[in-house]
Give the backbone structure.
Amino acid sequence: MRILICDDDEMLISMVRFKLTRDNIGEVISAVDGRQALSLLQAGNFDLVISDIHMPFNSGLEIISFIRTEQRKATPIIILSSEGLEDTVLRAFEIGANDFITKPFSPAELAIRVKRLLSK
Amino acid sequence: MTGHPIYELPVWIAGIFFLACTAAIVSFILASRIVKSLKKKRMDYFRNAYSKSINNLIMHEVYSSSGNPPSAQSFQIAELKKSMNSSSLAKQVMVDQMITQRENLSGASAKVVEQVYELLGLHHFSLKKLSSLNSISRAQGVSELTKMHCHAVIDEIKALGEVGNRIISDKALIALVRLDEKKDLFFLDNYKGELSKWMQLNIYHHLRDVHPRALPEFSRWFNNSNMSVGLFAISMSGEFKQSSAIPALAILLRHTDPQIVESAIDALEQLEAHSACEELLALSDRLWSSERAMAKLVKCLGRIVLPSDGFRVLHLFLNHPSYEVRFEAVKAICSLGPEARETIESFDEANGFQYSKILLHVKDSLLN
């Protein structure tokens, strides 16, 4: 399984990578900004995407929109953001996010949600 | 000609002096850049070295089915302690990384980060900063201890709440709010100073992470003698949807201070307090001359009025002299559904199309 994580917080990336790799969930590929995430998405296939909302260059919402509208793919998308505002959560779900986790979060919970989405 | 050497000598001296100064400045800049880049390299080295160890400690502690045996954990802690030795740069990098992790984590893993912070003795490192003469360092110490939920230092932080330096005392008060397990914002009862926007934002930011049931009833501060506290409490009651505050907010609509009235209108709008509709409507005569207050009132009424009753309530404001108020009224009517939109269009036609521009403005998705 190939999982793409997009977040400008490198500590968070390292923690999620550590957790998902340790639980044998899959190979974790990371992007530290929206632009890098979009080019990785264009270059290869991913089984799941975990993305922050606020990132340099392109936001998480743009990433969802790119996957759903331009690529027309059903890749599961989890939004992992510190912004838990109702409007943002609703907007993310409206445009195609499968799950929304608010930071601070539990890595164990994230791993379970990832597993659940990958098994569907 | 006789005077020439006399003039020449100082010029040479000045030249040499200028060159020496330039060389000194250039060497200083170069040296500081070298020091800076060495420091950055060392920080990167520490960051890379610690990142994996921290993740390892946190994840193994919490999630491993068998768990790390205590001896393995003690060994890892001892190794980390040894690697930090007495280097304050290494300790600072470790503290920063742990804080970043702590802010991202919740539940059991967050607790483990706090435990590891204490086991590594980093709370002593942060605590030392509280007695520093440098106020930035003191503020940093407060911030670190707070972010790592170090409850044992509440007394030390309380003492900082009374120091003359406003930045430190504000930071200390915010720290107390964060560390207070009861979350009752006790300090607001007797708070004498102006509750700055910075403090309000920080308190709000903290309260957002608190379970709604654990939040205090903000209405208890609505009539606080400190106006900034009262205004803050009113806005928080709306922000956290404390519908139990609606009757008290409705009473505040009769307050003599326009700031309080406007704040109460905003809160009632956030609470979608339909029950306060008549009290709000009764305000229109009193607030008619204030453009800002009227715009808020109309916006609020638009949010809480029933669609069947909307045009009756809101058409009164279509004659207001201010464009903003008329705009809010048209916008509110349009948001009530297709029937209300048809009614306002007929009203516009009957009134010589004087609302057509506003209607166009309201319908333009790029402008709204």
